[in-house]
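Protocol step 4 of 5: obtain the predicted structure for the target chain.
Materials: sequence only (see below). No template structures provided, no constraints applied. The aim of this step is simply to have a reference model before the mutagenesis design in step 5. Sequence pasted as it appears in the construct record:
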Amino acid sequence: MAEWRALDEKGSEPVAHGMAGGPLFDPESGLASDSLIRFIVSQRIDAARERCDELWVAVLSVRAGGESPATIGQLLGDALDDADAIGRLVDGRYLALFDQRQERAVLAATTHLRSLAEERLPGTVLHAGVASYPRHGFNLDEVLIAAATALAEAQSWPIHRVEVAPAP
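Step 4 output (structure tokens):
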């Protein structure tokens, strides 16, 4: 992916930008930006289609008592070390990509994230919606809609919860 360096809005910090002009990394969390993580997942879905393989995504909502996105980003990076990519969406949710993984590995990773969140950030509540290509969708939008729907179901619980999207 072509990129170029530009000054941020304050004119002081260089920020990497992609072809669409948006930042490659979220300045608050240090994770991949919305546009970059969507690009990565889309490309990985195309690759999974070519090799007839499975790909999983987890859309995550982290309710922390005043924790900064940088702290949450660090937590996600530490806990989801099996993820192929992690990014922050424009609405504040997070997206983790698990390429060539089985469902149980994704659920184990989110369980590890929950445990680490309880240890490092007491009072944090984690909700996750998990979906896969090709089980829940055949393109980026379909997979993300399935994961977001599962996340909405998980968020109906007041405690930590991970929901896998139902098969269509």
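Step 4 remarks: The longest strand covers residues 55-63. DSSP finds four helices and seven strands in the chain.
Proceed to step 5.
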